[in-house]
Design brief:
50% of the residues are buried. The protein is elongated. Helix content is 4%, strand content 56%. The two termini are 41 Å apart. It has helices at residues 129-137, 250-256; strands spanning 61-79, 82-102, 105-116, 122-124, 146-166, 171-192, 198-219, 225-232, 238-246, 263-265, 271-281, 284-293, 310-320, 325-335, 356-368, 371-382, 385-387, 390-406. A hairpin with a 2-residue loop joins strand 17 and strand 18. The protein is built from two helices and 18 strands.
């Protein structure tokens, strides 16, 4: 499924068509370094990325927030007594926000990675069971490919400009516009045994951009409690395909390049976020956040019919040990909207969408009233999925740092 926070892999598997599937490295709810541990400050300077209306409650001033997430991920595909592995390490998953607050108004600009990761490849050194079988036996017009290796990289950047307004002591609203830029490159390499191990490969590059909007509202029903609602509209993306291939059989080579110049529709679905946060006792903050992705309303050229909408639940507890120091622990469950017997709408095993259970911890320290830093960690346990006779598993570890400064 195409995700608000995802587009990691699109791989070409057959000569007449491309079987595509994308799934982000980072969780859809992990917009900032603090957020992966559930450290939702609600009125913190980084919240423009997931609760923009809360920025209206900040003190007057200029805020700069920089964070980065490093992700370590592995995928296993087991079939016929053989285990094949894919892995990736994304060192740079950045997010930067600038915010100006004065009186009742706040304006913000933020840039972050919605899907995938820059400068990062997902690699399957020995291919996957499905890819190997497809390339080995199903290429019409010529001999099959063996010794397959896969590599793909993808990134979607987001730039959002907007503002918020504090209506009164109970309500605030926000509105913004966003511009999205996406690029995905995927490649497989192998040899053709019946042609003297001649090289064969296919490389597919897709690029697209699009516009969308963000609206939000906050309600403060009582001192120390907050309810936030945010809605990010769908973004229409029409990818232009650049496809090149090598194969010793000319007819097969032509087939592998068949989609060059075509356009593929892969929208980012709309997402609604609901946040409840409160301080039931002094120094203790409890927050619940629910993210709902409207996958079935997106246009994925029919693939959206094979999935349900995504939903992600996050529950977090933050404890202030002092005015300067606080710790946080959070738990997250994500229902990816896919059938566990299918794992993706296009039926590929390269980057399966499996339901997730994540755990995060973190700490934040205010060096002074204008400078704060945070360090967080999360581990995600994925529920096993099946694709035919394959068993699919994956693991994910995220480590993140954040620095916030107020001028």
């Amino acid at each position: 499924m195409k995700r608000f926070l995802v587009c990691m892999v699109v791989l070409a598997l057959a000569c007449a068509s491309t079987i595509a599937y994308a799934n982000g490295i980072a969780q859809t709810s992990h917009f900032t370094a603090k957020h992966i541990a559930g450290m939702n400050d609600n009125t913190g300077d980084e919240t423009a990325m997931y609760d923009p209306a809360s920025t209206a409650w900040l003190k007057d001033g200029i805020y700069i927030n920089v964070s980065n997430i490093t992700a370590f991920e592995g995928i296993e595909a087991k079939a016929g007594g053989t285990t094949l592995k894919g892995e990736t390490t994304a060192f740079v998953l950045p997010a930067v926000s600038f915010l100006y607050k004065q009186a009742q108004f706040a304006g913000f600009l933020y840039v972050n990675v919605l899907d995938g990761a820059p400068f990062t490849s997902l690699k399957w050194d020995d291919g996957t069971p499905l890819v190997n079988a497809t390339l080995g036996v199903s290429l019409p017009g010529g001999p099959g490919v063996s010794g397959v290796s896969l590599e793909a990289e993808s990134v979607t950047y987001n730039v959002t400009l907007g503002g918020s307004y504090k209506i009164n002591d109970m309500f605030s609203v926000a509105v913004g516009g966003r511009y999205v830029m996406s690029e995905t490159t995927s490649k497989w390499d192998g040899v053709v045994p019946l042609a003297g191990n001649a090289p064969a490969n296919q490389k597919t590059t897709e690029k697209a951009n699009g516009f969308g909007g963000v609206i939000g509202m906050n309600v403060v029903p009582a001192h120390g409690f907050l309810i936030g609602v945010t809605y990010a509209t769908a973004v229409k993306r029409e990818f232009e395909v650049d496809q090149k291939a090598t194969h010793p059989v000319p007819a097969v080579k032509a087939g592998l390049e068949a989609e060059d110049g075509e356009k593929v529709r892969e929208d980012l679905p709309a997402m609604a976020t609901l946040t409840f946060a409160g301080m039931p006792v002094m120094g203790t903050v409890i927050a619940l956040q629910i993210n709902y992705m409207f996958n079935k309303q997106a246009d994925w050229e029919g693939a959206e019919d094979e999935v349900d909408n995504d939903i992600v639940y996050m529950l977090a507890l933050t404890q202030f040990l002092s005015k300067e120091l606080r710790f946080s622990a959070g738990i997250m469950y994500a229902d990816k909207g896919t059938n566990d017997k299918i794992v993706s709408p296009t039926g590929t095993d390269v980057n399966p969408a499996l339901d997730e259970l994540g755990f995060g911890i973190g700490g934040a320290y205010s060096i002074n009233e204008n400078l704060n830093v945070a360090l967080t960690y999360s581990y995600t346990y994925f529920l096993e999925g099946e694709l035919g006779s394959e068993k699919l598993n994956r693991t994910r570890n995220l480590v993140a740092v954040q620095v916030g400064y107020k001028l």
